[in-house]
Amino acid sequence: MSNVYQPKRKELALVKVVSSDTYNEKRSSLKYVGSVNRGFSSFITTKRNKKTGQCTFIDDTSSLTKKTKNDITKFFSNKNNRSKGVVYLVVNKNKK
Question: What are the pLDDT digits (tens) for 47-67?
Answer without folding.
Answer: 888 888 888 888 888 888 888
